[in-house]
Amino acid sequence: MNNPWHSVEVGKSSPDIVNGIIEIPKNTRAKYELDKESGLLKLDRVLYASIYYPANYGFIPQTYCDDQDPLDILILSQINVVPMCIVSAKIIGVMRMLDGGELDDKIIAVAENDMSVNHIDDIDHLPAHFFKELRNFFEDYKKLENKTVKVEEFQNREIAREIVLKSIDDYNLKFR
């Protein structure tokens, strides 16, 4: 069986448009993640808090970060995308975050093939409440596990593109 982290392309138009592989649909409490060995999806845990993922969540294939995982991506769409679906995603920004004291960036993108969001080109075009909701979710979703997450800042598309490019370079150094 092919592992989607390694067998799916990052995307021909990266770092502007990438393939995002969904692990967790929006509006769920299930924390699924890719099993790096088998390439299958596993249930990591059910969130301890009564909160739900505010966006479709997954990773960008053929990327690698300091946390030894592929680069995380939040893909905005009007629908809940099923796990392991490949979504063509237009990069619009990044949420800089510390998880347990380690850098854990979350790329923010819109589903390229969803007409309700694909007109958005940068996070500046998102409503202010969206940032409050994301910050609240990520700073609270591990509190009942006695773990600390700190959202540092939201940055624009250009910074996000640089992070994507670095994660591709890091992947190539690690795996090629």
UniProtKB/TrEMBL annotation:
Pfam families: Pyrophosphatase. Substrate binds at residues 31, 45, 57, 141. Keywords: Cytoplasm, Hydrolase, Magnesium, Metal-binding. SUPFAM superfamilies: Inorganic pyrophosphatase. Its cofactor is Mg(2+). Mg(2+) 1 binds at residues 67, 72, 104. It is found in: Cytoplasm. PANTHER family: INORGANIC PYROPHOSPHATASE (PTHR10286). Homohexamer. This is Inorganic pyrophosphatase.
